[in-house]
Amino acid sequence: MKKIVPLILFCLSLCLSLSAQKTISLYDQLAPNSKPSNLKDSTVKYGDTPFVVRVITPELTMYLPEKSKATGIAVVVCPGGGYSGLAAEHEGHAIAKKLQANGIAGFVLKYRLPNTDLVNNKEFVPLQDAQRAIQIVRENAQKWGINPHKIGIQGNSAGGHLASTAGTHFMKEQISNPKKTSLRPDFMVLNYPVISFADNLTHYGSRFNLIGEMPSEELNKIMSDWQNSEKLLKALPVSAEKVKEYSNELQVTSNTPPTFITHANDDDVVPVQNSILFIAALQQNKVPVESFFYAKGGHGYGMDNPTSDIDWIGNCIKWIKNLK
């Protein structure tokens, strides 16, 4: 009997852990701006890293903390991938699990990509999914043990662009909102984010995927040449109006949410100036901002920068918990 009791407790613990993770669709029917398709979501592997390259059904995967640890805080997590895919494991689920372990509910967003073969009005589609995610979490806050005034958004790389778009464009509702639910995140966490779409600052792949105009077949050929794609995309024209609209350092107001932002100074994919400009805009508008910069680390390290013993997400979690 003594040997059976620990086994029972382990099984109960495992069941509780599994019940805390659940995936739900963002929409009951075809997602807005999606074209009808018989295709399914698709994931490929780059080395050992899985990369979602096609999203037909946008979803939220919930990581709810144990009730005894729950803080009532929630974060929608947006993986990056240049708006051409989603690094959903190390920039999504790993971060959500870390938040969960610290009493913060994590919601990994599998958002649709701006692919003209699959969607109309492609520039609005990722933001629609981010706004819908915030809407779902806020409208289900009581059921999930969440404070509806403590729902933030986190993003990495292009996911950081999406998160900062959600935090600066929330008055432009891109989804049906019959309950008039606030789509404003209460705070933002941005990890090596794409912020600006301006020349010589932006990640050209992210910019062109979101607002560029080119048949997807031709764009895919350019993107497949990853060593030269940035140079090739830089030479392609984009709308100056859309560049301004989606350069989020230009969209900050006094109502932009408090922000935690981190970046590596030697990032050669998304220049660190993206974060510096956003911090300056936040400070100019008297929005609380906390920043953390690594001397080294490059781009795409997710939660764990191998060049440093300092844990950015540990500092971030303390910041989140101290927000009023």
UniProtKB/TrEMBL annotation:
Residues 1-22 form the signal peptide. Gene3D superfamilies: alpha/beta hydrolase (3.40.50.1820). It comes from the Bacteria. Residues 61-282 form the BD-FAE-like domain. GO terms for molecular function: hydrolase activity. Keywords: Hydrolase, Signal. This is Acetyl esterase/lipase. It comes from Arcicella aurantiaca.
